[in-house]
Amino acid sequence: MHNAYRTRNAYCFFRRLQDIIFSLIAIITLLPIMIFTSIAIIIDDPKGGPFFSQIRVGKDGKIFKMYKFRSMVVDAEEQLQMLLKDNEMDGPAFKISDDPRITRVGKFIRKTSIDELPQLFNILRGDMSIVGPRPALPREVEQYTLYQTQRLFITPGLTCYWQIQPNRNDIPFNDWVEMDIRYIRERSFFVDWKIILKTIVSVFTKQGR
Predict the structure, then answer these.
(1) What residues contact residue 6 under an 8 Å CB cut-off, 6+ apart?
(2) In this structure, are residues 93 and 38 in contact, taking their beta carbons and an 8 Å threshold?
């Protein structure tokens, strides 16, 4: 038991170190793309800035601001209430195809996952990790069952088992939760890197979008 505890602590330490190193390298490498994306967003919709921040729920229910490139119109949150009836996902998560709030540039950066790049700063800060359950909205967490709150046992991530599934938006929420709990139980550097490599393939093959 003691050895297992030490092994888990070592994994957590080196996982955090890996997050810091890799997020720094990615930010420096992808900086030109992020600058170009920022300019394109402002030109396409000058009513707002290039970034969008949203309150999310992290490990053990800790609240943090998650950053993304803005892919929607400025008043997207206000329009959400009118669209909830058209939700195509079950459970507390929200998603509709051909969302009318998405801008022209927004469609491209979502399709290519460029909109997620600012979350590298969340990873650097420690709000998120490279791999882990996707961070949920507070209104979603309020609807969780006791079993589903297990998603909050570890630091949320940029990618996860759900993220690499073909047609992931067709997956029932309960199955999504099961994948997250499976990851929590079996996580290791081998599992993390398997998910990271499959995420890269998924991005370039445009799966799941």
Answers:
(1) none
(2) no
Which ranges constitute the DSSP H helices of 56-188? 76-83, 104-111, 119-125, 138-141, 173-186
**How high is the pLDDT of residue 59?**
96
> How many whole angstroms separate alpha carbon 143 and alpha carbon 145?
7
Name the H helices within 45-148.
Answer: 76-83, 104-111, 119-125, 138-141
Overall residue count recorded for the chain in this entry: 209
Predicted confidence band at 181 (pLDDT cuts at 50, 70, 90)? very high
Q: Which of 66, 154, 161 is nearest to 115 (CA)?
A: 66
pLDDT for the residue 85: 67
Tell me what the mean pLDDT of segment 138-152 comes to. 94
Both tokens of 116, joined, read: 């997620």
What is d(CA 99, CA 62) in angstroms, rounded to the nearest whole number?
29
- Give the percent of the chain with pLDDT over 70: 90
Helix (H) or strand (E) holding 16: helix 2-44
